Structures are given as structure tokens and as C-alpha cells.
User: What shape does this take?
Amino acid sequence: MIERLSETTFGDDVREVSFALARPNGPVAGVLWHPVAKPARGLVLFGHGFTHDRRSPFLVPWAHHAVQAHGLAAAAIDAPCHGERRAPGDETPEQVAATYQRYWRENGGTEMAGDLSSAAAALLSTGDAGPGPLAYWGLSLGTQYGLAYLTKDTQPCAAMLGLFGLAGPRVEHWARQVRCPVYFVAQQEDELHSLTSVRALYDEIPGPDKTWRENPGAHAAVPVATCEEGLAFLAERIDAAR
Assistant: This one.
């Protein structure tokens, strides 16, 4: 299901593998990062944000951190209408956003949930990322389709979500079905999703093992310490599931 396309090594501890995932609607581009010298202790599947892609400048440093600080593998794939899945003629972030919004109204998160589930299964069958356990990190847009994924795939032992609000009945329905521990991030001056809406989404997620982390600042101003804490949350749950 996965075709390895290229490999690059960073220093002596992180290997990056570009791959293509075979899917019914065509190949999906992805990247895997894993330790060089020893087997990965688990896998964190990353979901990128709006108008970004599998190589989001926000995600890549944290994927490296997952490998270097926690001995985990990390992976990301392009969401529909993003990265190498952009529609012909969509060159600007505004064009990508408009196409994705139309796509979401028609498809919702069903296709991306299947893509993520297939990517996780394929990666966990390889020696580089497998055999698990598995956790999910998806902020902003990564929460929107990540909630759909978490209701489809029973493998994730934890998730880091946030920077997204209670945007309609579909998202509310998915949130109520999440069963894994959740670390949830909110920004007080978020210009894209109000703090009230973000808190409402968090409140829909059931279960006692969830953490609310609220910070001052705008949507993209998530503190480094919060990301470190969230990744440690995932690593701890992965260790407990081993």
C-alpha cells in the first residue's frame, strides 16, 4: 500500500522517508520520520492545518522532536485539496481554502479519515514505524478531520487536538464518539475560532482522561511549552499502551 520514494538522514538520529499511499481516488503523498539507530517506540500520526500540507513548517520540527526526544516515529499525509492533492489552478492559500470548503460541504471528513486509517495501518506494518502503539496530533484543520478519523480507527491510544470550535452537527457527533485520552489546546485571542466555541467542542468529548490547555495569544501563537507538554502527553500514553 505504501511506495517508498526517497530517503534523507538528518544528523545521526532522524531519517525522513517520502512515500506514496495507494488510495481509491489516487496516491496520497506522505512523509515518515523515524529513529536511525533503534526501533521506534510508537508512532504519532500528524494532521496538518488549513492551507498547509504534510511538510507544514509548524509540524516538521515537532515530528523531529518526537523522534529525538521520545524515540517515536512520526508521519503526515496531505489532506484533500492540499499539497500534492490541490485542485488544478489552486495556487494561492485563498484558492486552496475555497476549494477545500466546497469539498468539506460535500464529503466531510470521511475520505481523510479513511486515508489516515490506511496510512496508519500501512506504516505500522513496516519495520520503521511498527508495530505501534499509535497516537494522533492534529490542531486546527487537523482537529476537524482528526475527529472523523478517531471515530473510524480504534487504534489511537491518545490524541492532541484543539484550535478548532464546535462547527456544526457533524463535528459535534464525532466529538461525542472519541474514546481515547485527549490533550486539547485553546488560544484566548484565536481569530479563527472563538474561545467559547473551542471550549464547547472540548466539552462534547467524553471521558475523564482529557486535559484543557488554554493560552493567551492568537490562533498560531501556541507556546512551545504547550506543544512540548502535548507531545509528552502522547508519549506517556504510548508507553502505557506498549
The chain has a mean pLDDT of 93. The longest helix spans residues 224-241.
